[in-house]
Amino acid sequence: MEPIINVRFLSKDYKRYKDHKGYFGALHNLFDRRFELIHAVDRISFEIQPGELVGYIGPNGAGKSTTIKMLTGLLVPTSGEIVVDGYLPWKERKSYVKNIGAVFGQRTTLWWDLPLRDSLALLQHIYEIPEQTFQHNLGSFREILELDAFMETPVRSLSLGQRMRADLCAALLHDPKLVFLDEPTIGLDVIAKQRMREFIQLINQQRGATILLTTHDLSDVARLCERVIIIDRGKILFDGQLPRLLAAFGGRRLLQVEFAEEYASPTLEDAEIIYSEGLNVHYSFQRQEVSASKLIQRLSEQYRIRDLSVEDQPIEDTIREIYEKQLLNNETDGTENPAP
Fold first, then answer.
1. 260 — alpha (psi -120 to 50), left (phi > 0) or beta?
2. CATH code of the region 251-312
3. What is the C-alpha to C-alpha distance for residues 331 and 340, in angstroms, rounded to an integer?
4. Cβ neighbours, 10 Å, residue 159
5. Which one, of 181, 169, 150, 61, lies nearest residue 110 by Cα?
6. Domain 5-247, what fold?
7. pLDDT tens digit string along 223-253?
């Protein structure tokens, strides 16, 4: 099967000029403009197959949004190759964008002063969506995203959660085969996030849309994505299945115990106490060194237990561990790769 996204040695560089300060410095800037080269994206390569839902994650300044802007044709790469669904995005943008959808969490594609209904009607004409397809999709999305309560409301008056749902509807009206979601749940409350996640999952599973999701909320990744790509300082640190990531870096597990009585120092061999308050004690342990069942057996032999549970290390801690190891490696080998 041919990949729908094929990225090879992709780079995007920026010049950051160094200004001389003061009055004479301003004159100096006219004749001596010094700059440093910033590698926002640094020779990355990956493929995405049709129907995949891939999480593209990293800290601020890692290169996520820059990559998305190149993939959607908003930015021209400095070097490297991008082929998306047979198109070169920045060269064939008019034809290309008819087949993609995009949601940018901080920006809207809707008309600020128009009611939502009118904005969606305009998009039907822009994308030349057949009437039957438009009415079918709009009817489905209105129900799933619960849009009816604000269809007549001007976009400027919508809450953030309402606007994000409206933007997601607008991005999918024309049945795009490829969808780019850049921070689609940013700033949303728990209920709104869950509604968005369910809709994203529905579009991927029932309509077969390929989705590339960037987010700072790692619970989005844990609930939606089987594959993750981690980028930091413009370079890809990991590309693979989420279970493999957790197995490679998430070897730590948590054992949460509620004792039947209070113990002064309820130590446990091969486990470290990371939290203790009253009857509740949390232990951390490495799954490669000891099994949960073995630890539970030791606990029951030494202490009276009321309740306990075992959990995997939170994905946030796993990603943090990868970042820390990468930073340590960079400091050890003396390499530098400045973030934008």
1. alpha
2. 3.30.70
3. 19
4. 13
5. 169
6. Rossmann fold (3.40.50)
7. 899 899 988 889 998 899 987 877 676 667 8
